[in-house]
């Protein structure tokens, strides 16, 4: 429950790739975003998780279990990443 509540804090994700953080969840901004790529454990999971390139506003991306997103890149739009509490 703490992960969903963002106990590790949050981080703004714009159009510059972020590869130095660990996100449990990524919440796409209200206007949506254009996804370039997203990784869990340095493996691209865009196709595996069936993420469209045009992410709808408010969509919540969830790494699941003890996993975390370690890379995210948008070419347009923004998101809020919930940081893994370590």
Question: What is the helix tally?
Answer: 0
**Average pLDDT metric:** 92
Q: What's the SSE pattern?
A: EEEEEE
Runs with pLDDT <50, length 5+?
A: none
Instruction: Report the count of strand segments.
Output: 6
Q: Roughly what fraction of the amino acids lie in strands?
A: over 45%
> Fraction of residues in helices?
under 10%
Q: Report how far the terminal alpha carbons are from each other.
A: 15 Å
Identify the quaternary structure here.
single chain
Look at the helices and sheets and give the structural class: mainly beta
Global morphology: globular
Cα-atom radius of gyration: 11 Å
Main β-sheet, in a few words?
Answer: 6 strands, antiparallel
Number of domains: 1
């Amino acid at each position: 429950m703490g992960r969903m509540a963002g106990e590790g804090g949050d981080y703004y994700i714009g159009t510059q790739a972020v590869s130095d953080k660990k996100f449990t969840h990524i919440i796409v901004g209200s206007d949506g975003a254009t996804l370039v790529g997203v990784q869990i454990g340095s493996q691209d999971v865009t196709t595996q998780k069936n993420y469209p390139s045009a992410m709808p506003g408010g969509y919540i991306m969830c790494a699941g279990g003890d996993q975390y997103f370690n890379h995210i890149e948008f070419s347009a739009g923004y998101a809020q990443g919930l940081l893994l509490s370590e």
